[in-house]
Amino acid sequence: MYEKITGENAYAVPMRIYPAVHYTMGGTWVDYNLMSTVPGLFVLGEANFSDHGANRLGASALMQGLADGYFVLPYTIGNYFANAKQPQPSLNHAEFKRAETEVKNLTSRLLSIKGKRTVTSLHRELGKLLWEKCGMARNETGLKEALKRIPALREEFWKNVNVTGENGEFNQNLEYAGRVADFMEFAELLCLDALHRRESCGGHFREEFQTSDGEAKRNDEHFAYVAAWEYKGPQTSPELHEETLVYEEAHMSTRSYK
Q1: Residue 246 to residue 234: CA distance in whole angstroms
Q2: If 0-12 CB within 10 Å is exposed, 13-18 middle and 19+ buried, where does residue 169 land?
Q3: pLDDT confidence of residue 64
């Protein structure tokens, strides 16, 4: 692919790679041990600002994640655990007891369903639905179809899933089921947020909002903010919190890949 673009054989001539705007896109500051300014909080891969500036280029982003995970963190985080003097938290705290009770109840519920569908089958169905309706390109019709289907799929999960194995043992299927249960909630929120944001921006491309030549068309008047959805509990709509983006020096402009 590189040779087709440049006309040069990368095995014979060094590749023309150089720092570009991707390398200055930010990320969380970390020291040489990959620890942030919060003691004990380590940041790996694209999320940090150690090597490649949190860029979105697949090759270097993947490389940084592998390098951080395989070659850096295993040799640095141990030093923190060995030297940090952390107080032993009390198991009598009300929040600990609440969390412990919730986990026990969830575990018992998952193991007691004894349905006919595997966790994998439900996970794959959810994944296929998101791939088709809330992928890189999505539209209002597809998102509404997904938001109609996901609650039904979640109900199917809680009524008909079959989690094998027993409680009190190393049970990866039980762990997997707990993750898929969370995916059901997250998938619905993902589609809700995508439907709410009536613009195209970054990795979010709404087919209804594009320029005449197919580029993303933002709506800065209504969506120039950082969004955070607050979970309000089961059977309750999440609450949207907005923090307006204010740029004093740099200004937003249209990004084109052409």
Answers
A1: 34
A2: exposed
A3: 81
Q: If you write DSSP's letter for every residue of 149-208 in order, what string do you get?
A: HHHHHHHHHHHHB---S-TTS--HHHHHHHHHHHHHHHHHHHHHHHHH--S-BTTBEETT
Residues 6+ apart with CB under 8 A from 158: 109, 113, 181
Residue 240: phi and psi, rounded to 5, are: -90, 130
CA distances from 53 to 57, 87, 177, 225, 247 (A): 11, 34, 35, 22, 20
Half-sphere exposure in the Cβ direction for 162 (13 Å, CA): 7
User: Distance between CA atoms of 217 and 200, rounded to whole angstroms?
Assistant: 5
The pLDDT of residue 46 is 77
pLDDT of residue 87: 80
pLDDT score at 106: 94
Ramachandran angles phi, psi of 80, nearest 5°: -65, -45
- Angle, helices 172-196/119-133, rounded to nearest 10 degrees: 20
Is the Cβ–Cβ distance between 173 and 117 less than 8 Å? no
CB of 193 within 8 A of CB of 228?
no
* Segments of the chain scoring below 50 in pLDDT: 54
What local confidence, expressed as pLDDT, does residue 12 receive? 94
The pLDDT, as a whole number, for residue 176 is 97
CA of residue 186 relative to chain centroid, distance: 10
CB-CB contact of 241 with 228 (8 Å): yes
Q: How far apart are CA 258 and CA 250, in angstroms?
A: 22
